Amino acid sequence: MTVGLPEVRSAHGDEVLQAAGDSVLALRQRFGDSIGNARESSGQLWVVIANDRAHEILAWLRDDPGQQFNYLCDVTAVEYRDPELPLEVVYQVRSLPRGIDLRLKIEMDPEGDLEVESVTDLWAGANWLEREVYDMFGVRFRGHPDLRRILMWNTYDEGHPLRKSFPLRGHRSRSEQTRNALAANPEAHYTLEELSIVEAYHELPADVRERLVREGRVAQP
Amino acid sequence: MGLTPPPGPGEAPEYVESMSPNWVTTRLDFLANWARSNSLWPMPFGTACCAIEYMATAASRFDISRFGMERQSFSPRQADVLICAGRLPFKLAPVIRRIWDQMPQPKWAISMGACASSGGIFDNYAMVQGIDTIIPVDVYVPGCPPRPEGLLYGILMLQKKIQGESISDPSLRVEHLVGPDGLFRRPEQIDEVSEPFGNSVSQTRSG
Amino acid sequence: MLQPYIPILLLLVFVVANAVLMLGISQLLQTYRPTPVKSAAYESGMPALGDARERFSVKFYLVAMLFIVLDIETVFMIPWAVAFQQLASIRGVLLLEMLTFVAILAVGYVYLWKRGALQWD
């Protein structure tokens, strides 16, 4: 939907769109019913994919020599004002060798269970991006190594701020929020030992690392 | 010391006279105030856009060092005035409180910009609605961001305020700590100054 | 008799007076309000974690020790050079003497080189 802006189409833009369209066709051929609606928006193509095969689809997009979408630009989410529209988790991927972008959306029921498979094993950068989606929307990512809040502080308990059901100024009164903020001591939740283990983990010898993981002193990397 | 909350808006501070004013104390006052106001070392607590304007003020064109702010100290221990330039999220609130607490007396605070003074355009779940809910502020410099001339005017205003002080008034140098209820000001004061006004009143999210 | 030393005495008086005045006036005009948070260590607004006394790597000690040994060798060479210049008749013997000294230390140097003491990582 363009809002009164003149649509400037360039030949290069059309090529890119064509290439992205080819990728969508290839997706439909390979995954059939798991690929839903595909639309163009502002010169970019987005396509809906099913939640249960999302990880597989993204892995194929990354690894297939014809697709080569090796760069994950963003993982984000959007909840629309209209209650009929679903809550979408959006992946923006780019193919650096081919120079094209593609947007993939997973549609979910805003009232329902918000859970998606994590793609941190495909792209390491998804770690913080998914943490942001979790923090702001409450979408849980299965298999994420360290799913905790990233923008709000760890002990923030008012909810997930970018949901439509979350009031703009938060659930609590300003004085309560100020009190909670002043009392939130971020470093108190980790002991010095835990912090040094996490920091030095990659430098430790293998047997020490195994022992730490076995003893539960560090989360499974 | 300072477990009583500081005077809120509209309340006059108590003036405690520890010695009666005479020629010696007034001359000493003049000396101390002259020294303090003309050698205010700022601690720039720059968080956002106002920090850029602060940097511009500190640079050669507008130069705050000609007003005595020669050395900007990024450690609170060696600073006289905390200039909070930029919006303050709730996540950063304990940090600025701690930094304020670690500044030795005499200390002052300048709240630079709309966000530091009142929350600015960010009337939402994440931003502190004015740093005066967390630390005591001496001068508010409005603007988004204030022009360097505006900040300089605020600094001069602070200098004038310092020159009106007296070393025989210990109430000026009281450490206002966070109270046992975890707040610096009374809750009703915080709620009152944080209430939305102007356009913010109609800006809320449905549901 | 002690006339030329008067300026030094004056300087001393001024220095002491300056120091006393600076500290004295600060004590008189100071506002000292210690609080627990104020006296705590500074860590950019966060509560400081852990001890300030960290363990040092032993490599620093090793480097310092090697420096001392080889530096003393150099120090010995300096008066030897003066003697070498002055005792022109026994120059050959002196040279041999110094070469022996250097050779002994060179053996030690090769040993620590091969043992990897010069390798920082």
Topology:
The complex is a heterotrimer of chains A (about 220), B (about 210) and C (about 120).
Chain A: H1 11-31, E1 35-41, E2 44-49, H2 54-63, E3 71-79, E4 87-95, E5 100-108, E6 115-117, H3 126-137, E7 140-142, H4 174-183, H5 192-200, H6 206-214
Parallel strand pairs in A: 2-5, 6-7
Antiparallel strand pairs in A: 1-2, 3-4, 4-5
Chain B: H1 23-37, E1 42-46, H2 49-58, E2 81-85, H3 93-101, E3 108-112, H4 114-118, E4 139-141, H5 148-163, H6 187-194
Parallel strand pairs in B: 1-2, 2-3, 3-4
Helix pairs in contact in B: 1-5, 2-5
Chain C: H1 6-29, H2 36-39, H3 58-86, H4 91-114
Describe the structure.
The complex is a heterotrimer of chains A (221), B (207) and C (121). Chain A is α/β, with parallel strands linked by helices and 221 residues long. Helix content of chain A is 32%, strand content 21%. Chain A is built from 6 helices and 7 strands. Chain A is globular and about 55 Å long. The termini of chain A are far apart. The relative contact order of chain A is 0.09. Chain B contains 6 helices and 4 strands. The longest helix of chain B is centred in the C-terminal third of the chain and has 16 residues, at 148-163. Chain B has a single domain, classed as Rossmann fold. Chain B is of the alpha/beta class and 207 residues long. Chain C has 2 domains: 3-39; 58-114. In chain C, helix 3 (58-86) runs antiparallel to helix 4 (91-114). The model of chain C has no long low-confidence stretch (mean pLDDT 90). The interface between A and B is medium-sized, with 26 and 29 residues.
